[in-house]
């Protein structure tokens, strides 16, 4: 391999020689900025709606049952490991993790660990199972068996009612 010494005098010449040739179909107009380009939909669902069994009661006494959870990232799962509350009490890991991936509960959009702490245990258990299904299985359906007829069927844990599409 040969080295070439570049000086200020021959820099323009070198840039012209090494510049790629323009394609014939290219117009003289500058390319559109990347932000203006339409985003491609790859069919990946990243946010999942849910309905809490009991509901979160805020400071004003309003019950919030409908919410949304986004897919977790590696950072979401690693961050609680350095949280002092989790180091002191490993059971707190699910509280911190859920507070990072829940995007809203009703009109509450600032979901933090304090919000998850004030939820009923049945709702936290529901959200833990919902998190597991969404992030490891990729869907919100669960196979269940009717206690009366022993028939098996699927239900959508995201809160859809029978007969709704």
Any overview of this molecule?
- This protein has 165 residues and is an alpha+beta fold.
- It is built from six helices and five strands, in the order H-E-E-H-H-H-E-H-H-E-E.
- The strands form two sheets. The chain has a three-stranded antiparallel sheet. The protein has a two-stranded antiparallel sheet with strand order 4-5.
- A hairpin with a 5-residue loop joins strand 1 (47-57) and strand 2 (63-70).
- The protein is globular.
What's the quick description here?
The protein is α+β, with helices and mostly antiparallel strands.
Overall strand count: 5
Please tell me how large the radius of gyration is: 26 Å
Oligomer: single chain
Counted by DSSP, the helix tally is 6
Which descriptor suits the 3D outline? globular
For the largest beta-sheet, the strand count, sense and barrel status come to:
3 strands, antiparallel
Structural category: alpha+beta
How widely separated are the two ends?
66 Å
The order of strands across the largest sheet is 1-2-3
Fraction of residues in helix:
25-40%
Low-confidence parts, pLDDT < 50 over ≥5 residues? 26-36, 161-165
- The string of secondary-structure elements, in order, is HEEHHHEHHEE
- Determine the strand fraction and express it as a percent band: 15-25%
Mean pLDDT: 78
